[in-house]
Design a protein that fits this description.
Blueprint (H helix, E strand, L loop, with lengths): L5 E7 L1 H13 L5 E4 L5 H4 L9 E7 L10 H11 L2 E8 L3 H14 L2 E4 L15 H9 L6
Helix pairs in contact: 1-5, 3-4
């Protein structure tokens, strides 16, 4: 049996978990989730992405280990595992990590959405994930 393609996939850490929950709450097409609270990019780089075509992948990585010397390499490996038509990276609040994530995104021709545009209380997570979900709906990541 041939596996069906995924319209969308959220990959990453707690930001991916929260964003996927907010997005899927009102989406007509639910996105798959490959994310875990507390996940580091090094851990994510070892995950096996679905072996099916993906329409859009949304990646949240870099917040949990912004000073890691292997951050860029780990992010690149995460990206190479994703067989998606379009990838959108959520830039972390940490500006150093955001620069690294953005460089990796640019090297693959991917898109970015900067979390720094949303209010935060802990400099890791937005106060609410609804703003990210709304922005992603504008990208029509799941046919919504």
């Amino acid at each position: 049996m041939i596996a069906a393609a995924l319209a969308c996939l959220f990959v990453g850490d707690s930001t991916a978990v929260g964003t996927a929950e907010a997005f899927n709450r009102t989406a007509s097409t639910r996105c798959a989730v490959l994310a875990r609270v507390g996940a580091s990019p090094a851990e994510m780089s070892r995950w096996a992405a679905p072996a099916v075509p993906i329409g859009t992948a949304v990646v949240a990585a870099g917040s949990n280990s912004p000073a890691s010397p292997s951050l860029a390499a780990d992010l690149s490996l995460i990206r190479r595992h994703l067989h998606a038509q379009r990838v959108i990276w959520l830039l972390p609040y940490d500006r150093g990590a955001a620069v690294t994530v953005e460089r990796v995104a640019q090297s693959f021709g991917d898109f970015v959405l900067d979390l720094a545009e949303l209010p935060t209380g802990d400099r890791l997570h937005p106060h609410t994930y609804e703003g990210i979900a709304i922005a992603l709906r504008r990208w029509r990541i799941a046919g919504d």
